[in-house]
Amino acid sequence: GGWYTDTSYSTPWDFDNNTVTHDITLYAKWTPSSSTPYKVEHYQEELDGTYPTTTTPANTESKTGTTGQNAAYTPKTGTDYPGFEYDSTRTKINGVVQTSGTINATGDTVVQLYYKRKTYSVNFSVNGSNGSIAATNVIGGYLTGSLVTVKHGGSVTFTASPTTGYEVDSWTGATATPPNNTTATLTVTANTTVTVSFRQKTYTVNYSVAGGQGKIQANSDAPTTSSSVSVAHNGSVTFTAHPDNGWEVDSWTGATATPPNTTATLSGVTGDKTVTVKFKKTYTVTFKVDGGHGS
Fold first, then answer.
1. Backbone region of residue 16 per phi and psi (left: phi > 0; alpha: psi in -120 to 50; beta: other values)
2. In the 8-state DSSP scheme, what is residue 71?
3. 198 and 130 Cβ atoms separated by less than 8 Å
4. Which one-letter DSSP state was computed for residue 291?
5. What's the rounded Cα separation, in Å, for the pair 38 and 61?
6. Is 101 within 8 Å of 73 (Cβ atoms)?
7. Rama region for 280: left / alpha / beta (φ>0; ψ in -120 to 50; rest)
8. SS3 sequence, 98-165?
9. Which among 107, 97, 117 has a CA at the least distance from the CA of 43?
């Protein structure tokens, strides 16, 4: 840089040695600064496909360079922004969509880099049978049949619908709380397969002797005064009463007795049940004709 007497900047003016003897015009030649500031801003795509405003970049770098030269920048990689990838077609420099642009002398150059979210596939199905599964809420993606296409960081909520007499056994690929809940959620960060398994419902049937004087038996289990048995949905249990000597069955509750009432059956079980048996004392009446001559 410096001052010159001609527009081609070939004859410098030396203020220390040159003397002004007539009117002259001096021309300034500027040397580009090598420390002109500029910024590099990084923007990540939102789940709805939009990008943040220019006031809220994910990251901003303050750099310096030579005025008039290209503004240097380095896009972030997957290590820096997991689940995102640089989209060069959106790059702006000085407000213009371009991948290269020069640094303004005024220090207001901004390089804007944009990163789109990666897209993943989520398949879902029933492992086995006895129910169905549906993707009931998708954030950051869309549903096509049994395939959900979702952007990185999006989520999918699944709902399981077991057939009558069945319940959720377990989920794979999604989180349910508790584990056998009918709904499960997945935050998507990779291609994923979600499955749900169903199991037949089981119920607890408690059984006991009311008041003592005997025992009760469920199916082929050992006779006892009280216990419980697990029964599958719509299943049945046969109970057998074992009264002590001198006692007999008085009544059953919770099960249907079969004469002579020593057995009772609980059928079509669809929930937890309680069965009891009650005994009563038996008496022997002896009668005879005293002295004969009749009956």
1. alpha
2. P
3. yes
4. S
5. 9
6. no
7. beta
8. CCCCECCCCCCEEEEEEEEECEEEEEEEECCCCEEEEEEEEEEEEEECCEEEEEEEEEEEEEEEECCC
9. 117
Query: In Å, how far are 90, 145, 199, 226 from 229, measured between CA atoms?
Result: 67, 43, 18, 10
Cα separation, 81 vs 119, in Å, equals: 14
**Do 205 and 274 contact (CB within 8 A), yes or no?**
yes
| Residue 19 identity | T
Give the pLDDT of the chain (295 residues) as one tens digit per residue: 799 999 999 999 999 999 999 999 999 988 899 999 999 999 999 999 999 988 899 999 999 999 999 999 999 998 999 999 999 999 999 999 999 999 999 999 999 999 999 999 999 999 999 999 999 999 999 999 999 999 999 999 999 999 999 999 999 999 999 999 999 999 999 999 999 999 999 999 999 999 999 999 999 999 999 999 999 999 999 999 999 999 999 999 999 998 889 999 999 999 999 999 999 998 877 777 776 676 6
Six-digit token string for 278 = 């009650």
Structure tokens that stand for 245 in this block: 């000597």
| Residues 113/75, Cβ–Cβ less than 8 Å | yes
| Cα–Cα distance, 168 to 136 (Å, whole number) | 17
Element (H, E) at 159: strand 147-162
Q: Are 39 and 109 in contact (CB under 8 A)?
A: yes
Do the bridges between strand 92-93 and strand 96-97 make them parallel or antiparallel, or are there none, so unpaired? antiparallel
